[in-house]
Automatic annotation (TrEMBL):
Pfam families: UbiA. This is UbiA prenyltransferase. The chain crosses the membrane at residues 48-77, 89-108, 120-140, 186-204, 216-233. It is a multi-pass membrane protein. The keyword Transcription regulation does not apply. One of its GO terms (molecular function) is transferase activity, transferring alkyl or aryl (other than methyl) groups. Its main location: membrane. It is found in: Membrane. It comes from Trichoderma gamsii. Keywords: Membrane, Transmembrane, Transmembrane helix. The keyword Oxidoreductase does not apply. GO terms for cellular component: membrane. It comes from the Eukaryota.
Amino acid sequence: MLAWIWLNLLVEDLANQRLEGSIIEDTVNKPWRPLPSHRLTADQARDWLTVAIVVAVGSSLVLGGYTASVTLMLFIWMYNDLDGSNSGIWIRNALNASGLMCFSWGALATLSGGELSSRAFTWILVTGAIIITTVHAQDLPDIEGDKARGRLTVPLLYGETAARVSLSAMVMFWSVACPLFWDVSAWGWAVSTSLGCAMSVLALQKRGQWWDEVVWKLWCLWIAALYLLPALGK
């Protein structure tokens, strides 16, 4: 499972970071990445991307999750090469969600031998809805880079306050809805709601690059915790 996730994630990273717009954005937001720091050229990244695609899809024939891997490649192509990331906020969020659902699908397929229950598919759809409605947490620390790239994001289009309020509201909703879906133990409720509350409060009360990075990292931790909820069911 971990090998499948790592190989397919490598494809996504190479496909995204090699683009001119991404290099411009990363020069502002993430100058330590290989391309803006001149440790890798765009042409070299493209060559490695070709190799990574072949390895990721080919290994899926052995590890499982082949259909999920091929579907993920389609969404990666749409997001990056067809410029879906700049085609509007909700198209971008939908493509983000679709990609992450493919990761869930592929990971579960490698663990289960390819057979997924209807409940598992429902959960994958739920995680997609979570991503669509909360992934703009990543846009808060990237405001300056997105401005430089000319990308419209939730905080730039609707305003920072609206972005923070909507993020906090949806995080709290999912922090309760997901434990209910899986009927988890008290530990599951504690993890989901504590991380959700912390993120929501910080998003509303604290501003600035450092705090926005904290909110984004908490979002990543919160999502990881939600993915673990099935293991905490009663």
